[in-house]
Amino acid sequence: MASQADYKDRQFLAVIGDEDSVTGLLLAGIGHVTAAPDSQKNFLVVDNKTDNAAIEAAFERFTTQRKDIGIVLINQHVAERIRHRVDTYTAAFPAVLEIPSKDHPYDPEKDSVLRRVRRLFGE
Amino acid sequence: MSGAADREAVFPTRQSLGLMKAKLKGAETGHSLLKRKSEALTKRFREITRRIDEAKRKMGRVMQIASLSLAEVTYAVGGNIGYQIQESAKSARFRIRAKQENVSGVLLPAFESYLTEGNNDFAMTGLGKGGQQVQRCRETYARAVEALVELASLQTAFVILDEVIKVVNRRVNAIEHVIIPRTENTIKYINSELDELDREEFYRLKKVANKKQRDNAALDAEMKQKREDAAERDQENQAPEVDNTGPSDILGAEEDEDVIF
């Protein structure tokens, strides 16, 4: 398992979500911008105008390219837009977590991990 | 399970029989060990899935409260502060650290959140008004993120355990359904071949013994014949006339003299 080798330097969380969720999580202090030259943010604000390609690119960047992110938080309605990507993502690091947003209540049926739990127990 | 097809390619010798027996024993030990490992992992796995379920529900509640407090902030500040916050975020105050836990040989990661001291990107947020609400909102969200971090570590453990359990079960099944039957078949094959060899050997020995007996008997007969011939020749030479009288008939050939008392 190669994924266990590089867990040490993963110390940030990343967020993909609507404005309110991102604002709240940034207030909690998870926002991080890397040093000046490329200055990558670890959050992405998604609204109706954001297209799916941008979301996918951000998801890709947070999950595979950056090695310092341990947890990716993604709003469930945003995850729904790139569902195929989220469902096919099976690596342990970073952990992808679907969180509810203000306008969209949390639906356990759509969560990729919970669906796996259900399938395993044959429900 | 066809006896001839599913076995290892070995020569049926006593040495390979010993090897196969050792192998069978090893496979059985390994099977029981792996089975126990799989059971321990599955127990842990079930516990984790249960906790994930709980944590997901808790997350729903916590996030709801957090959203509410953010709405309070928006109301108190009197405008959207999202843009300002996104721009002023520079360095993460809330970070995570991964540590590992060992469950029967499987390293499970667990995230742990910690706050770095001394940097506050949002010192100016809510300076005009609503500072108290902003402060409260930050605390609420910090608690929410803690719950999320806990959930994330459970989820990571879930993913890793799932994978490991699959691998272990595959091994258990391979040993149980492929390796052990095949080794047993090989042992059976070697035994039957060795028995066959034994029978052949026994038959051969019997044949040899028979032949020897026959030869001996023939030799004995010949010797006896020779000896008799020699004896005959001797007698003829020594007393040829004795042969005529021979043993006299005592019952009735000659008249006995009457016996007078």
UniProtKB/TrEMBL annotation, chain A:
<keyword id="KW-0472">Membrane</keyword>
<dbReference type="GO" id="GO:0033180">
    <property type="term" value="C:proton-transporting V-type ATPase, V1 domain"/>
</dbReference>
<keyword id="KW-0406">Ion transport</keyword>
<comment type="subunit">
    <text>V-ATPase is a heteromultimeric enzyme made up of two complexes: the ATP-hydrolytic V1 complex and the proton translocation V0 complex.</text>
</comment>
<dbReference type="InterPro" id="IPR008218">
    <property type="entry name" value="ATPase_V1-cplx_f_g_su"/>
</dbReference>
<protein>
    <recommendedName>
        <fullName>V-type proton ATPase subunit F</fullName>
    </recommendedName>
</protein>
<comment type="subunit">
    <text>V-ATPase is a heteromultimeric enzyme composed of a peripheral catalytic V1 complex (components A to H) attached to an integral membrane V0 proton pore complex (components: a, c, c', c'', d, e, f and VOA1).</text>
</comment>
<keyword id="KW-0813">Transport</keyword>
<dbReference type="InterPro" id="IPR005772">
    <property type="entry name" value="ATPase_V1-cplx_fsu_euk"/>
</dbReference>
<keyword id="KW-0375">Hydrogen ion transport</keyword>
<comment type="similarity">
    <text>Belongs to the V-ATPase F subunit family.</text>
</comment>
<dbReference type="InterPro" id="IPR036906">
    <property type="entry name" value="ATPase_V1_fsu_sf"/>
</dbReference>
<dbReference type="GO" id="GO:0046961">
    <property type="term" value="F:proton-transporting ATPase activity, rotational mechanism"/>
</dbReference>
<dbReference type="GO" id="GO:0000329">
    <property type="term" value="C:fungal-type vacuole membrane"/>
</dbReference>
<keyword id="KW-0926">Vacuole</keyword>
<dbReference type="Pfam" id="PF01990">
    <property type="entry name" value="ATP-synt_F"/>
</dbReference>
<comment type="function">
    <text>Subunit of the V1 complex of vacuolar(H+)-ATPase (V-ATPase), a multisubunit enzyme composed of a peripheral complex (V1) that hydrolyzes ATP and a membrane integral complex (V0) that translocates protons. V-ATPase is responsible for acidifying and maintaining the pH of intracellular compartments.</text>
</comment>
UniProtKB/TrEMBL annotation, chain B:
<comment type="function">
    <text>Subunit of the V1 complex of vacuolar(H+)-ATPase (V-ATPase), a multisubunit enzyme composed of a peripheral complex (V1) that hydrolyzes ATP and a membrane integral complex (V0) that translocates protons. V-ATPase is responsible for acidifying and maintaining the pH of intracellular compartments.</text>
</comment>
<keyword id="KW-0813">Transport</keyword>
<keyword id="KW-0375">Hydrogen ion transport</keyword>
<feature type="compositionally biased region" description="Acidic residues">
    <location>
        <begin position="252"/>
        <end position="261"/>
    </location>
</feature>
<protein>
    <recommendedName>
        <fullName>V-type proton ATPase subunit D</fullName>
    </recommendedName>
</protein>
<dbReference type="GO" id="GO:0046961">
    <property type="term" value="F:proton-transporting ATPase activity, rotational mechanism"/>
</dbReference>
<keyword id="KW-0406">Ion transport</keyword>
<dbReference type="Pfam" id="PF01813">
    <property type="entry name" value="ATP-synt_D"/>
</dbReference>
<dbReference type="InterPro" id="IPR002699">
    <property type="entry name" value="V_ATPase_D"/>
</dbReference>
<dbReference type="GO" id="GO:0007035">
    <property type="term" value="P:vacuolar acidification"/>
</dbReference>
<dbReference type="GO" id="GO:0016471">
    <property type="term" value="C:vacuolar proton-transporting V-type ATPase complex"/>
</dbReference>
<keyword id="KW-0472">Membrane</keyword>
<comment type="similarity">
    <text>Belongs to the V-ATPase D subunit family.</text>
</comment>
<feature type="region of interest" description="Disordered">
    <location>
        <begin position="211"/>
        <end position="261"/>
    </location>
</feature>
<keyword id="KW-0926">Vacuole</keyword>
<feature type="compositionally biased region" description="Basic and acidic residues">
    <location>
        <begin position="212"/>
        <end position="236"/>
    </location>
</feature>
